[in-house]
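Example record used in the benchmark description.
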Amino acid sequence: MGDSGSIWLPDAMSTFAGEVDALFWFVFWTSTVLFVAVIGVKIYFMIRYRRTDDTYVPEPVHESKRLEAAWIVLPTILTLIVFTWGFQVFLRISSAPPDSYDITVRAQQWSWEFEYAEGVTSFSELYVPVGRPIKLMMSSEDVLHSFFIPAFRVKMDIIPNRYTSVWFEVTEPGEYQIYCTEYCGTEHSGMLAQVIAVSEVDFAAWLVSQNQDLPPVELGERLFEQCAICHSTNGERLVGPSLDARFGTMRALADGSTVLFDEDYIRESIVNPAAKVAEGFQPIMPAGYSSMSAKELDGLVAYLKSLE
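Model output (structure tokens):
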């Protein structure tokens, strides 16, 4: 943990994270002081005015107008301070600068896809340049998700059939964790990704390298990263069936029939996953992968064929 981190918050690594933290600590310490004061007064009254004689009848206590005014006016002032301060921070983090670099984010059970303005697509790794505002336009392919980067103090729900957005500007190079913080199914806790913040020069070089044509097997291996949360390649049983060295073998299906694990079956299982469900598994694979290009489908087929 760096100099700006604490047991409550990780290091602040975006330009507005400090403003969010300042508001958090104001609310935290104000609440702490009020809590201690209220409990302290209660303890004092319990000791000072405890009843020691069962026959004692205390004098009637009349209200204090000044005390009543104080506990109405002071909380109102504190509430207005927090509201005004919080609204100013909200406006700042809700409006991306006009020169922001746009990246499209697609969430689906249980992976993240990032598409850049140059047409490059990455999975589970969000590359961004340091010192440049980044605006994320986000949508969901299936259910409700929530995009959260603790180090940047950004969090936003991702809702099916509509767009939501967040923006940030990273202050230091490094790797930062992305979480889904809305329960979205059995593998919700594994829906993770990384922000990889690099210099402008390194970011430009990365974009160029991604635009190079990859051999089908390498392309398929890269694309399979988004599938690895549900399908293993080592025989381990996950949410979906393992895909290790299955090409050319017969696969038992949920309806009691069998099918040859060949190119056609692989392609159909990606484009229409409910058509032939493997025995012992549920038809829960999302249909969003049907939007893959022919080149991407060919790459995945080639990769699965290459497994031994």
